[in-house]
Amino acid sequence: MDLLAGVPADFGTLALGLVLAGVVGGLIAGMLGVGGGIVVVPVLYHVLAGLGVPESMRMHVAVGTSLATIIPTSISSLRAHAAKGAVDWGLLKRWIGPMLLGVIAGSMIAGSVRGETLSLIFAIVAIPVAIHMAFDGAGRTISSQPPGGVTGAALPFGIGGISTMMGIGGGTVGVPLMTVFGMPIHSAVATASAFGAIISIPGTIGAVLSGWHLPGLPPYSFGYVNALGFVLIAPVSFFLAPVGAWLAHSVDRKRLRRMFALFIAVTAARMLWDVLF
């Protein structure tokens, strides 16, 4: 399959769409600590569908490529939030080990299931998160701090595993969880920006290895990571993530939560529609 054969005009449309995904993804990464994947994955999924990539590997490529684009974006976003002193480094030290184990487990599962399963996971997890952030989560907590022990390890493990299978940076799942356990939204967003680096680097390696040498992959792909998508999305996201971080500290808490919920709900609903209908 030649992704660009015989349709030179489509390349410009493809490039524009990917660059716009990078713009939105970078801003969202900085503002909401989600690594941009919540936007990038659906965009890549539909671009790949329009270009004839088989359904069996479409979501895998979207997830793998999204994880790769999160690497520079999350680093840029983390630096911007750290400069404002909003990152909870103590929590990160406790969570990094279990989160990495979750990424490994998520990579193994993602590489062995069908693309439709990954799409369902994306939608099923994202829609409740959006509802929580929009209607239920504001100001409501169940504890003043994250739990310890086995439960405390299970939380980052789940964040790492689910985020890897969804192709996101960890903020989509991590931010609501941290706010439920009493962390202020701006601190949760800042800390979640670090999750992106913890998840995306090993997650990208897992996506490359899982898809290596498979037939039918789009050109310029290394396993399930497409280099063209990375080149067009990652640089734009990298430079716009600090702008999003600045906006995060300039927007009131209620508006920030509603913006977060809106982006998640729209992208998840569209993904669920494609899978079921």
Structure report:
This protein has 277 residues and is mostly helical. It has one domain (10-276). The chain is built from 10 helices and 2 strands. It has helices spanning 8-32, 37-50, 55-83, 89-110, 115-136, 149-166, 171-180, 185-211, 227-248, 253-276, and strands at residues 221-222, 225-226. The chain starts with 7 loop residues before the first helix and ends with a helix.
Provide a brief overview of the structure.
This protein is mainly α.
- Could you give the order of the helices and strands? HHHHHHHHEEHH
Instruction: Kindly report the spatial arrangement of strands forming the biggest sheet.
Output: 1-2
Number of strands: 2
Instruction: List the total number of helices.
Output: 10
Q: Helix/strand-derived class? A: mainly alpha
Which percent band covers the strand fraction? under 5%
The largest β sheet comes out as: 2 strands, antiparallel
Shape: globular
Computed Rg: 17 Å
Low-confidence stretches: 1-9
Q: In total, how many domains does the architecture comprise? A: 1
Mean pLDDT, all residues = 80
What is the helix fraction of residues, given as a range?
over 70%
User: What is the end-to-end distance?
Assistant: 26 Å
List keywords for this structure.
single chain; 277 residues; two-stranded antiparallel ribbon; 10 helices; 77% helix; 1% strand
Break the fold down into its secondary structure elements and pairings.
Blueprint: H1 8-32, H2 37-50, H3 55-83, H4 89-110, H5 115-136, H6 149-166, H7 171-180, H8 185-211, E1 221-222, E2 225-226, H9 227-248, H10 253-276
Antiparallel strand pairs: 1-2
